[in-house]
Amino acid sequence: xxxxxxxxxxxxxxxxxxxxxxxxxxxxxxxxxxxxxxxxxxxxxxxxxxxxxxxxxxxxxxxxxxxxxxxxxxxxxxxxxxxxxxxxxxxxxxxxxxxxxxxxxxxxxxxxxxxxxxxxxxxxxxxxxxxxxxxxxxxxxxxxxxxxxxxxxxxxxxxxxxxxxxxxxxxxxxxxxxxxxxxxxxxxxxxxxxxxxxxxxxxxxxxxxxxxxxxxxxxxxxxxxxxxxxxxxxxxxxxxxxxxxxxxxxxxxxxxxxxxxxxxxxxxxxxxxxxxxxxxxxxxxxxxxxxxxxxxxxxxxxxxxxxxxxxxxxxxxxxxxxxxxxxxxxxxxxxxxxxxxxxxxxxxxxxxxxxxxxxxxxxxxxxxxxxxxxxxxxxxxxxxxxxxxxxxxxxxxxxxxxxxxxxxxxxxxxxxxxxx
Length: 420
Ligand code: LLP
Known about the structure:
Layout: E1 13-14, E2 17-18, H1 19-26, E3 30-34, H2 35-44, E4 50-54, H3 61-69, E5 73-76, H4 79-87, E6 99-103, H5 108-117, E7 120-123, H6 126-135, E8 140-146, E9 168-169, H7 173-182, E10 186-191, H8 200-217, E11 223-225, H9 243-261, E12 266-269, H10 273-276, E13 280-292, E14 295-300, H11 309-313, E15 319-322, E16 333-338, E17 359-361, E18 369-372, E19 393-398, E20 401-406, H12 411-415
Parallel strand pairs: 3-19, 4-5, 4-12, 5-6, 6-7, 7-8, 8-9, 8-10, 10-11, 11-12, 14-16
Antiparallel strand pairs: 1-2, 3-13, 13-14, 13-18, 15-18, 16-17, 19-20
This protein binds ligand LLP.
Ligand LLP binds next to helix 10.
């Protein structure tokens, strides 16, 4: 388990590359990812048989290729996530399946792709079982079970319980097994994901529900997936969950099932944030420093079009300053950090239920850089073109070298699909 980080308010480099030089070479706003950190996080999870990356967290092809080369498999939640996985070189078939389609519905394109490529499907609704049964009888499937409870870092990221639309309600498992049988599908896997960024207690409760569900399904089960949801520390003082303890609980569950069934059960985990969050930094240039009554604002060129988590969930992201003069000054200013959008909520320093809050940061001026940290997961992939702002560039740093992995969106690309 990694050491809990302490965040500072000055950062002159990312993975050995100077932040001002990154901004000078690639412009701002730009997402920068530290490849070594992703690999480190993958290795933390080595006890699990399969680490299946929830690519929704950060699906750049270069990142997908990087995790694939580390032996990680991938989850896809949409037709184009399937196509991304294929484009990044994941095989279609294998044991365990390299790509799993996990969703609550099949849109028509996703169903066609799953059939065309014979992909393994994790069904999150009885309707998916019916539709797959009609199109591809004889397939092996996983069922995503909603165990009746959930927990996330915010109500919006809680994916279990009666208020959640996700998965198959646990009390309907029996009916779904009959449905699978009637459609000539074999249930070989079970999956539960109760929410993103939750705590160890809630994560561990899933083990009991999984054991109960697996016993109900019986000997056809070959794989159980603990889902994702592993939290990461976003602020000094927060810690990681005890991964050893987490694994032990799952391993014990798996062993009991192996004893009951008399065969091996593969144990999967499906993290998104844990692999990508801390590796990613959003760099923005400060373009205005202004006072509003007693409040001081640093206004940069990245907004919630680039990183939506603060406005969506009141999520906290550490922010540090890279001054162009290289000085690392004391955090002596109380600052509100905002972006360029024509909307008052375009503030990075806000908290859940709150609107704006100030943060102690070093003095800075125009041209200095904001480094918004722990932004690798649900950062770029949730960005938009609001206010006709271009999508940011993405850069990967490997072995001290930075390379562009997605060029900044161009105006021509931005309007290419529009017709007058
Ligand atoms: N597996 C399934 C089926 C999921 O729905 C998710 C996340 C994951 C795995 C990965 O969860 P993670 O390990 O990253 O917590 N936009 C929100 C997070 C929404 C996640 C939705 N599902 C955020 O920025 O916090």
